[in-house]
Amino acid sequence: xxxxxxxxxxxxxxxxxxxxxxxxxxxxxxxxxxxxxxxxxxxxxxxxxxxxxxxxxxxxxxxxxxxxxxxxxxxxxxxxxxxxxxxxxxxxxxxxxxxxxxxxxxxxxxxxxxxxxxxxxxxxxxxxxxxxxxxxxxx
Length: 139
What we know:
alpha+beta; five-stranded antiparallel beta sheet
């Protein structure tokens, strides 16, 4: 339903693709308000939840889905080993959020990580259906 609304309201030329101006309008009118919900993006470093900020927003239509892409920057801890966990989840179940099969994680040079997925985990006060778990090590 969400994607059909995005297409109807923002794909003004009805070509099934979003121009830069259409995407900018989506960011302003349909995405930026999600800051009130942390963009349904939850990030924990060593169990401590971080505030969610975003940059580099883009949106495209793919296989009848509106796909939002954005970068979530944050500072890494100074310790040599730590855990980063993140999830995309709408606890109201108004939207269905899915992570791509292999989320892109960019760490500074000198860091390596092992990625795994955790199912039905509680972090903070929310039970998440799936969490991406990164065991990070600074070399």
